Amino acid sequence: MPGAPLRVVYTKSGKRDADVVVVHLLYWHEVRTEEEGLYLCGILNSEYMRSRVQHLQSRGVGGARHFDKVLFSLSFPLWRDLPRQRDVARLAATAEHVAASVPLEPASFTARRRAIRAALEADGVAQAVETAVERLLAE
Question: pTM (2 decimals)?
Fold first, then answer.
């Protein structure tokens, strides 16, 4: 993908097998700085955002589905390097480091996701991100 050197990438669904990643649909957005990208990641990965669109999601055997179809029905402020936006970016960077430190033994995708969520909760950064995103979007 030629273009901007910094992008935030979001998949509809995907699977990783060894060193190969296969995705069904890929969304991306160019960002000017790493901090802007972290801000966007903090918002997109927040439980607060998921909970705000849950009622719009279709339902399947495993519960709510197709988050990607309803995610952008909510608005959030564009990056302007404001204090509350920097807070979200800083906390997203911390969450990224905590998640990267979780050993991902051969296991299912859901088991890996559960392990990462547990580490984020244990560190306290999960709740901090939620608080920061909620404060930002309540403005």
Answer: 0.81
